[in-house]
Amino acid sequence: MSRFFSQKYSALEAYVPGEQPRDMKYIKLNTNESPFPPSKKTEEAVLAEAKKLNLYSDPESYELTSLTAELFGVGYDEILMTNGSDEILNFAFMAFCDSEHGIAFPDITYGFYPVFAALNGIPCKEIPLKDDFTVCPDDYVGIPENVVIANPNAPTGICLPLSEIERIVASDKNRVVIIDEAYVDFGAESAIGLIKKYDNLLVTGTFSKSRSLAGGRLGFGIGSEELIRDLKTVKYSTNPYNVNRMTSAAGIAAVRDNEYYMQNARTVIKNRAYTEEALRSLGFNVLESSANFVFAESPDISGEELYLSLKKKGILVRHFNKKRIENFNRITIGTLDEMKAFVRAVEEILKEKRK
Fold this sequence. Notes:
Elements: E1 27-28, H1 40-49, H2 62-72, E2 79-82, H3 84-96, E3 103-106, H4 112-119, E4 124-127, E5 146-150, H5 162-171, E6 177-180, E7 201-206, E8 219-223, H6 225-235, H7 245-256, H8 258-281, E9 285-286, E10 293-297, H9 303-312, E11 315-316, E12 318-319, E13 328-332, H10 336-354
Parallel strand pairs: 1-11, 3-4, 3-5, 5-6, 6-7
Antiparallel strand pairs: 2-8, 7-8, 9-10, 10-13, 12-13
Helix pairs in contact: 1-7, 2-7, 3-4, 3-6, 7-8, 8-10
């Protein structure tokens, strides 16, 4: 760091995104992107909007907000569109947490949560997952901290039933509970319907996964009008034009073409089932996933060795060095052809290993 870097950030450990290599062409199963392109209508909308890039985007994202609110059955003032779900999460940490109001989350979850806490000077409590890598709802009942839970969780893919989410939210209405639903379209039940009942619930989502817009950077938060008003205060104090014109156009078209994307999500679920069955037949321990990835370990090869061996064969998966999960790899679900190629590669690696 330079001698000018603020002391308040000197101990900050930045989030490490998944590899985006340029050395060769890979089958990319490492960053939970959709294997399917945006719909033709989405592509056309983006190209048309590119002609207007000399003009600022609508700071209210009025049309996008209205259509997305209708899609999820909420009011216009109960949703805020953002530059990816990372932005709405950071806004929430800024708006509802401080030195006296900390945040609690699982010890194995989305790696940005501790980064946001450190960035904003927020005390955080990391609560260990159970031995089977599930979240224990009782751990979040009766604690004073605000709460953020990814549901389904990442990198495990395991989800909590909606009844348990509600129990956490209802247990203390004097704190905010954030449910991060980045992967909800792949098999979990959304908590969005609960925002009418609980004014301390914020549900966040993204267009990156099931709606093929990872490169577009579009997310949202849904909650009571009061919570959204707070988040808008943060937004307009940091980045009023946070959703650019082309991303907004892409989002509008994606909502209008929603069935195309939901069909793709159903295809991913089928491909996930194929992958889970194939890995289990090879002796892997595969956690029950409700996301567009699986989390798996083999008794015959370490997680790091498998990751490196797959990379040599042109297939990228995500490996984490954290102690409890160092033997696992997270495998994004791609097309069926991609998953068959992945399984063949794993079979070859295990065969070579056993020689």
